[in-house]
Structure formats: structure tokens, C-alpha cells
Amino acid sequence: MQKSLFQKLISEFIGSYFLVLTIVGSGIMGQNLSNGNLAITLLANALATGAILYVLISMFINISGAYFNPVVLLSDLIQKKIELKIVLLFILTHIIGAILGCFTANWYFEYPIYELSTNNRFGIYTFFSEIVATFGLILTIILVGKQNKQNLPIAVALFITAGYWFTSSTSFANPAVTIGRMFTNTFTGIDPGSILLFILAQIIGSIIATYLGKILIK
């Protein structure tokens, strides 16, 4: 059955909201319980993020496509799988959901609801790392989605879980999530001055993966 635009927007909002809520919330919880051990905090953060991604994609893939990520939309737009109007509406929904998810995590962990991160992630190495992270994520979505769509939730969840550890940027790979994480001055935050560099890297990684994916599945 064809889903309405309203159903799709609600699905994308809920997915983006819970994704950032989980990223920021698990980062704070890990930070609070690990006594400053960053490895344990990162492990908790990665596992929680991978788990919620599996759940959210499984929930919404047959309603809205379970995008939750503007560069995934960009990839589908390049492949002419989605209309520009829908892309713009989804991106706005993703950003709103991401910011509100961050605000919620801040609030119930007793941090200021609104705060700007001072976690500086600016640099050429993190820039390249985000290109690699986003390239890998988009290529995973294209190739696994083409071969067996049922495996997409676990494939994306596992890639991001691994990406937290094999990239120096901890694999944001999502412009909406990047913007949302600007509003928490905790473990998962990102300084506003680093955001444009991250988003540019994510766009580059997405475009490269999309065209390579088209070659591989031709």
C-alpha cells in the first residue's frame, strides 16, 4: 500500500529524533559511568547507535525508506530514485528531529537543554576520515540494498558500529546528525566551526560512492 507524505515525514522525524537521542544519550551515559575511560564510552556509544539503527531502519524502511540521512537522499536523487521536493522536505524533517533529539538527551541527563559544543573536530585528517566513513556507508546501502534489501538494517547498523572505531572522526556520516550534535557540550558534541567541513566531506563521500556503486551494479 502506498504511504502518504504525512506518514513518511512522521517516520523520518521519529527515526532522526531517536537516532540522535541515542547517540547523545548513550554518549552521556557512557561518560557518566566510565569514570573518564574514553574507550568504554566510545564502545557504549557505538553499540547503542548500531542497535538503534537496526531497530529504526527495520521499523520504517517500508514506510518512508528509513533514510534519516540527507546524503543517503542525495545518493538516491543522483540515481533518480526520489523527487527533489521530497528530498528537501525529508532533509528539513531530519534536521528538526536531530536537534530535538539532542535537546531531549541534554534535558533528561540534567545538562542545559540548549548549549553549543566546544568539541573541536576540525582538521584534514577528520575531513578525510568523514569522506571514507560516508563513502563506506553509501556503498553499503547501494550494494546490499540491490542484492538483498532485507539485510539492509543489519548491514547499516554493523557498518556504523564498526565506523565508530575505524575512523578518526568516529563516523558521523550524516549531515543532520552532525548539525544535531552541535547542541551538546558532551562526549558526542561537535564544535560549530567543524560542521561545514564535516558536511562537505559527507557530500563528497556520498557522490563518489554513488557513482562507483552504479558501476558495480550495472
List the helices and strands and how they pair.
Blueprint: H1 5-33, H2 38-60, H3 70-78, H4 84-108, H5 124-147, H6 152-166, H7 175-180, H8 192-217
Helix pairs in contact: 1-2, 1-4, 2-6, 3-4, 3-8, 5-6, 5-8
Give a brief outline of the structure.
It is built from 8 helices and no strands.
Any overview of this molecule?
By secondary structure, this protein is mostly helical. It is built from eight helices and no strands. Helix 1 runs parallel beside helix 4 and helix 3 packs parallel to helix 8. The protein starts with a helix and ends with a helix.
Number of helices, counting only DSSP H or I runs of 4 residues or more? 8
Shape: globular
Mean pLDDT: 97
The profile of the biggest β sheet is: none
Radius of gyration using CA atoms only: 16 Å
Helix content: over 70%
Please provide the ordered H/E string of secondary-structure elements: HHHHHHHH
Parts with pLDDT < 50 across at least 5 consecutive residues:
none
Distance between the termini: 29 Å
Structural features:
218 residues; 0% strand
